[in-house]
């Protein structure tokens, strides 16, 4: 033991009748006891006295008194101390528990590696290109997307499970304000968003946990066949639309595909937009989105959140009239910019769209003041 509990009040009460020399020897004897995690070996008293730095007659007499007062002599010359034995037993029990935890963690890591290897092999056999550093959640989502059965529950036990969710995305989820909930073992923490990962990349925490506070995959094996249910995942149609949508965006903007699919599914469910409209809008904007390696291109998720597909419907070249609420949308601002002779937004001229918008607004206000004069 490299430390032990020293209760000042107990020690002072028990040693109030000792001299300073006897108190010092008693402390040295306790520390030797804890350091060796065993009783003091008094079979050779002179050797024990030397180990406790007791050399002259007064110190040796003080040692003998301390042993008789606080220790109990056993067969073989061992001096035991009941409180020391209890603390040592507690320390060893804690060490054993730590060893079990470490062993369990190694087993969990081994199961995770086996599951990861199996999913990589299955995806490769299906002709799906997967990055070497893909997350486990990404791999599970790709397996679900391509209809690949995951390893059975008897070989791999997922550490996290989740109740079913409706598949709709709330406003807080769309804007990333949802918080991760730890599972019952408190060993799952929601990680930050990953870097760009291509059209096929997804995010393992993209499906927020339901009221139960857990997320993951539920697998059942019946009659030799694996019946798989990926909980919290969007529908296959929504995943297909999200993947097709990614083809019109630069690779570095195709992140968090599962969340994109969830948002597409939500927008379709409430009648906001259809897949055909989204794909047609993205196709018409592809040249602008991918210009300059996507320097001014928003992420797919932001494109959907900000209703950028409307930019096509209200593009300056197609607009017959400028809407009254032209400042509410980017396409409306561009339509007004064309009307005022400024032209559409160009990232080479205006680094940020805000600068372009300020110039359009200034031109409109100047025109209004001229008319009023």
How are the SSEs ordered, and which strands pair?
Layout: H1 8-14, H2 20-36, E1 40-41, H3 45-51, H4 57-70, E2 72-73, E3 78-80, H5 82-125, H6 136-145, H7 171-174, E4 217-222, E5 225-230, H8 236-246, H9 257-269, H10 275-289, H11 300-305, H12 310-313, H13 330-339, H14 353-372
Antiparallel strand pairs: 1-3, 2-3, 4-5
Order of helices and strands: HHEHHEEHHHEEHHHHHHH
Q: What helical percentage do the residues reach?
A: 40-55%
Topology, number of strands: 5
Strand neighbour order, sheet with most strands: 1-3-2
Q: Report mean pLDDT, rounded to a whole number.
A: 74
Structural class: mainly alpha
What proportion of the residues form beta strands (DSSP E)?
5-15%
Low-confidence stretches: 153-231, 313-320
Estimate the global geometry from the Cα principal axes.
Answer: elongated
Rg for CA atoms: 36 Å
Largest sheet, strands/sense/barrel: 3 strands, antiparallel
- How many helices in DSSP terms? 14
Distance between the termini: 90 Å
Could you give a short description of this structure?
This protein is mainly alpha-helical. The chain has helices at residues 8-14, 20-36, 45-51, 57-70, 82-125, 136-145, 171-174, 236-246, 257-269, 275-289, 300-305, 310-313, 330-339, 353-372, and strands at 40-41, 72-73, 78-80, 217-222, 225-230.
